[in-house]
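Can't attach files on this board, so I'm pasting raw text. These are the components:
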Amino acid sequence: MLYSIVKSNTYQDSLRLMQLSNTLNGTDGVNRVSIMMGTSANKKILRNAGLDTPDLDGAEPTDLVIAADVADASVGDSLLAKVDEFLCYRASMSGRSGLRSVRSLERAAGILGRVDLAIVSIPGQYVTPEVHRLLDRKIHTVIFSDNVSVSDEVELKRKAREGGLLVMGPDCGTGRIGGLPLGFANVVRDGSIGLVGASGTGLQEVMVHIDRLGSGVSHAIGLGGRDLSAEVGGTMCLQALRALDADAATDVVVLISKPPAASVRDEVIGVAGELSKPVVANLLGERAGGVEGNVHYARTLEETARVAVELAGMRAFRMVALGPEQRRIKALYTGGTLAAEAAMLLEDLIGPTTSTDPGHEVIDLGDDKYTCGRLHPMIDPSLRAERIAAVFDDPENAVLLLDVVLGHGANSNPAGPLAAAIVDGLAKLHADGRDLAVVASVCGTERDPQSVSAQTLILEQAGVAVLPSNAAAVRHAVAILQRRDARTVSPASPEPIRRLLSEPLRIINIGLREFAEPLLHLGAQVVHYDWRPVAGGDRKLQALIDALK
Amino acid sequence: MLYSIVKSNTYQDSLRLMQLSNTLNGTDGVNRVSIMMGTSANKKILRNAGLDTPDLDGAEPTDLVIAADVADASVGDSLLAKVDEFLCYRASMSGRSGLRSVRSLERAAGILGRVDLAIVSIPGQYVTPEVHRLLDRKIHTVIFSDNVSVSDEVELKRKAREGGLLVMGPDCGTGRIGGLPLGFANVVRDGSIGLVGASGTGLQEVMVHIDRLGSGVSHAIGLGGRDLSAEVGGTMCLQALRALDADAATDVVVLISKPPAASVRDEVIGVAGELSKPVVANLLGERAGGVEGNVHYARTLEETARVAVELAGMRAFRMVALGPEQRRIKALYTGGTLAAEAAMLLEDLIGPTTSTDPGHEVIDLGDDKYTCGRLHPMIDPSLRAERIAAVFDDPENAVLLLDVVLGHGANSNPAGPLAAAIVDGLAKLHADGRDLAVVASVCGTERDPQSVSAQTLILEQAGVAVLPSNAAAVRHAVAILQRRDARTVSPASPEPIRRLLSEPLRIINIGLREFAEPLLHLGAQVVHYDWRPVAGGDRKLQALIDALK
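---
Top answer:
Structure tokens for the assembled complex are below.
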């Protein structure tokens, strides 16, 4: 038999109600049960599910509806008792975790003093006026709720942009600001990679892989899936990119989005290309890879993480101050195939030589024309060590790129003579107030007779940036030139966003209590605003109240 | 002043002599010194270096020449004394390491009984007749020496192919057979990845990265840089590819080469495509990536290693016996962007749907049309668990592909209900004598509330292949279909090569002693053949002796 009860003005959030429905479904005598707020959408769902009773028609959006298919009326009554018990229990649990819970935005703001961020997870139809009130108070907002119209999103984001604020969402699944997880968020390491994403699980997958590769995240700014649509125009994406460029904790910026509208894509990539920091862009499926200026494209989410981690690692190396005339990469290799790979990658990354380009050079010192009458340079490092002095002397050289090959048969300490020549060369340059970047990779394992870590240390102590592969070393050499050419001044970012990303946050949580708990455990200042629809859910009356304020 | 001495019939290998020259250069009173065998090439080098004395003219290839620029004659005499001392010391050291050293091939072969492999590192001009003698005795050969003519290489490799033998080189820098390093070789883990390479440091870089990624090498067969030229025609490359396909220790085959001749490329890729095992091909710079049947292309050497390690990992999963009608990948996702990435990669890897293809399907269960009136499947896993039964019922389904998203906000045990549904589904299929592959990735970290390792274990115990990323899971799903379609019979490989790759090796080392030492330390049976030119270096006389045998 069908059984239904409507409890008027008993607002509960939908997550809690669905958990309750799942718990009660299939218990003794209960064939099916749905517990929902009496919105028109929910009433339609109940009718489609064959749970329509005449009671339903009169239910208001702020009424709690229990609709069930049960064995008999007594089962229905026990169901109602269980629902009441659950709601009472939840109510009595509130406050136990130490989370302060209040019934108005004003009260929450009063407790916190300054409010930086609000997390909004109330039903979609109530979101827009609440977020307008937050933006009026200069509060950045994360909107997890969906079912907000595009026109409302456009309006809210326009307002946010004018106020120098961020609106993340609607339908923003995940985020992380200053180490605090927002919504559905994996627990990852703090680090120097900042992410912007119009994609929830895309951000999650990239953050997880950054963490697995031993690196970490500064911020992850979710935008909601429609931010890069033609209607919304990437408003918040552009704010977020500029903000991460200006943010001191961020070294590398990641941008993830499903394919954006063409017009928006051009503007977003245009701004990404103007940033002072490297950007890794994954516009799902849009292009395979490659580099344009400071923007590195990746095709898969794991590749996005890998490229970002590699770029973040590069930022940790000694900064080299290059003069404007220093434009050449000079590579002195001992391995023929490593040299061939370097030449191939240089062409991939830099393209054909231009008039301002003095011609990068990859020399394979293992080639017959260099070894005639001498040992192969993998056995005898003296040939290369001798040639290094000339590299430091040439004022057009910017980067000296090297391979070091270990293993049986190779020299027992190839890094030694190299390091000595590099220390000499750098000392002379530094005495002249000049500099040169030295980049290398070591092809070897820990169990090789020379030990890759021991050889790496010798090079690092000589001032060499040692990358984990030949390909990474070549990319780093190119990145050094690109960084020299990059603007050093970041585009301006509004002061409220700068503060959001750099100062301890005071947060109001509006909607699902669950989102406040992890923040509280991490020591953030959070107040829960136990929101429920005002004025019996009458949006017109609410609009009138807003207008009168 | 110039000083020179010619010691007739005193052969020493060039590595040792160059080490000696390097040691003595720059010692008291010595401005410059070169110690070389009196070949015409070396005499030219000495003349170009300004070390030409009348003595030089009469020196024979088997004579030792000491040429120096010294302060006075007494320095020259002390130099000669040092050279004699060095040569005597080396002679007295021979035998100390436990390496047996003999003066003829016959004697070496007599000691070992059966001989599998010879390592040849004598001067290039003497190589060809020695290798002919080895091939006549059915001995596989690694030739480290360079300066062997292309026509000799063609002839030697033709003879080897006819005898079912491998000739690796000339100019083969590195190799590894059955765990034994050959020549310039890094110390890497044993494993299931077999490599074939016409590139020395290319092989080394890929092996090093395979090792760093925690995987290992079965064999690495060097070919010499000219094997894939039009003249040589990839003779040995084709032998090596087929041999690794037939080799029980090898699961994945890697092919590395500088860009081959076009005609050779087509034949080599044709054979690679016929193998029963996956192949990772890096034809330096030739193409960016992608998959054709079982052949995966990689652009950089580190990417080559990464793809090979991923494919080797996949071979470790439960083998699934698919029927011919099972052709569909059915993906049930909870993450929208993960689903979008899966769809994109399926199209990348499989291409447009064909008539024999029932249409792969990626369903995003987080889409509104599935969640209407239900919780998001990242919170409530029951929706997906319910739909899994139908996937097992459809006889056209080959692979069930899944994502599992962890973190704050997500279900506290998403793998649990999934695993239960999969165990049920597999049990019913197995009872019918059928099967289905289940492939997943877990988006999460160890510090997530659910713990990625705990969730992975639950899935693995249910029979799921858990890959380290969504992209890897998609590639694995495609690989399962490709493996089902792959021929199960490997192309035939000659019996002598099968034995070379699978049985303990007995090795003759001809030339540089250094190459024998690591083999001896690893417990291999090695005899050193202390080669020197016969008949005063007269190649015509040697040819006559060979002809008379």
